[in-house]
Design goal:
CATH topology of the largest domain: D-Maltodextrin-Binding Protein, domain 2
CATH superfamily of the largest domain: Periplasmic binding protein-like II
Radius of gyration: 19 Å
Shape: globular
Number of helices: 15
CATH class of the largest domain: Alpha Beta
Order of helices and strands: HEEHHEEHEHEEEHEHEHEEHHHHHHH
Distance between the termini: 44 Å
Strand order of the largest sheet: 4-2-5-12-6
Structural class: alpha/beta
Number of domains: 2
Helix content: 40-55%
CATH architecture of the largest domain: 3-Layer(aba) Sandwich
C-alpha cells in the first residue's frame, strides 16, 4: 500500500498558493529523459515567458526513462512530471491510493517502437524470432512489448531478450551485438544514425502501426498539489500547449533551446528529432481537430482492454484514476496551429 502520509507531507510542502504575495509558484518539473528535441516545448514555455505569464517559476529536470517521473510525482518530490500513461496505470494498480494522475496527453500516438537493422534480418515483427533484442528494463517501449507481441502473434519465447542500459542500447545496435532494440522511435533511430548506422539499414516498427491502441506520455501531477493549486496546474498546461505551438511553428528555434541546455548535442539532429515527434506523436489528426491534451474515452477503454491481455490488474481498472481532464484549459488554448 502506498505511504499516503509521506506523499501528503511532501505534497503539502509543495502546495504554495499561486500568486501568493505576488510571487510566482514554484513548480519543479520532472522530464522522462535527457534534454533532447522533444523537450524543446517545455524550454520554449520557459524562454518565451509562458510559465511566467501563468505566475509560475518552473525548473525542468532530466529523467532516466518513461517510468522515472511517476514515483517522483507520487511521493511529492516533484509536483508535476512527464511519463508514460500505461506505466502509470500499472503503478496505480500496484500502489492503490497513490496521489498521482495524468492531466494532459502529449504523445497522442505513442513513439513506442522496435528499431532494428535490416542487415541483421529485422524488417518485420516476425523477424524478431530467433534474434537478439536489446531492451532496457525501465524503457516504456519495452513495458508495452508484450502487447505488441500479442497483437502481431510473434513467439516471445523465440526471442533472446538482452537487458541493456540506456547508454549502451544504441551502441550495441550499431556494433551488431543486438539485432534490434526497444525504444522511442525518434530517440533510438537518430541515436543509431549518429553512431554511424546507415539510415537505409534501419527498420522502425512503430507499435501503433501494428494494432497497439495505447496512448503515450502525458503530463502527470501530484493530486494533492493539484487540489491545493488548481489554477497553477491549469496555468502550467496552458503554458505547455503554448510551448508546443511555438516549436511547431519554429522547430529550429526549439532545437536551439535544447542545445542551450545541452551543449554537447547536435542542433540539426535535435531539430530532426523534434520534428519526428511533432509529425508522428504530437500533432496527430485527433489533436489537429480537438487541440492537444485530451483523450478519447473509447480509445482509452480499448487501451485498458489491451493492457489486460498482458497484465493482471489487482483491482478493476478505472480510466478516471489514470486521467483527469478537469485541469485542461479551453480547447482554443490547446490548438497547435
Amino acid at each position: 500500500m502506498f505511504n499516503r502520509f509521506t506523499a501528503l507531507a511532501a505534497g503539502l510542502m509543495l502546495a504554495a498558493p499561486a500568486f501568493a504575495d505576488g510571487h510566482a509558484t514554484a513548480v519543479p518539473f520532472a522530464l522522462d529523459w535527457k534534454f533532447e528535441g522533444p523537450s524543446a516545448a517545455y524550454f520554449a514555455a520557459v524562454d518565451n515567458g509562458h510559465f511566467e505569464a501563468a505566475g509560475l517559476s518552473v525548473e525542468i529536470s532530466a529523467g532516466q526513462g518513461s517510468l522515472d517521473a511517476i514515483p517522483k510525482v507520487a511521493t511529492g518530490a516533484f509536483p508535476m512530471g512527464f511519463a508514460d500513461i500505461n506505466s502509470l496505470m500499472r503503478f496505480l494498480d500496484q500502489n492503490p491510493g497513490a496521489p498521482v494522475t495524468a492531466v494532459m496527453m502529449v504523445y497522442d500516438k505513442p513513439p513506442f517502437a522496435i528499431v532494428g537493422r535490416k542487415s541483421l534480418g529485422i524488417e518485420e515483427p516476425s523477424d524478431l524470432e530467433g534474434a537478439v533484442l536489446g531492451a532496457p528494463p525501465p524503457d516504456g517501449a519495452w513495458a508495452q512489448f508484450p502487447i505488441f507481441a500479442a497483437e502481431t502473434g510473434i513467439d516471445v519465447d523465440a526471442i533472446t531478450v538482452e537487458p541493456v542500459g540506456f547508454p549502451t542500447r544504441e551502441p550495441m545496435l550499431a556494433q551488431g551485438e543486438v539485432a534490434a532494440v526497444t525504444g522511442f522511435s525518434f530517440s533510438s533511430t537518430l541515436n543509431a544514425i549518429r553512431l554511424g548506422v546507415p539510415e537505409d539499414d534501419l527498420s522502425v516498427l512503430l507499435m501503433s502501426d501494428y494494432g497497439v491502441d495505447l496512448y503515450g506520455n502525458a503530463i502527470i501531477v501530484n493530486t494533492e498539489f493539484a487540489a491545493e493549486n488548481p489554477d497553477a496546474v491549469t496555468g502550467f498546461l496552458t503554458a505547455v500547449a503554448a510551448g508546443w505551438k511555438d516549436v511547431i511553428a519554429d522547430p529550429a528555434a526549439g532545437a536551439q533551446m535544447v542545445i542551450d541546455r545541452n551543449p554537447a548535442g547536435d542542433v540539426e539532429l535535435e531539430q530532426r528529432r523534434l520534428q519526428m515527434a511533432i509529425d508522428a506523436n504530437v500533432l496527430t489528426d485527433y489533436v489537429a481537430e480537438n487541440g492537444m491534451g485530451g483523450i478519447d474515452a473509447d480509445r482509452m477503454a480499448s487501451a485498458i482492454e489491451q493492457t489486460k491481455l498482458v497484465y493482471e490488474f489487482q483491482s478493476e481498472p478505472d480510466a478516471a484514476l489514470y486521467f483527469d481532464d478537469s485541469f485542461l484549459p479551453a480547447a482554443d488554448a490547446r490548438m497547435l496551429k
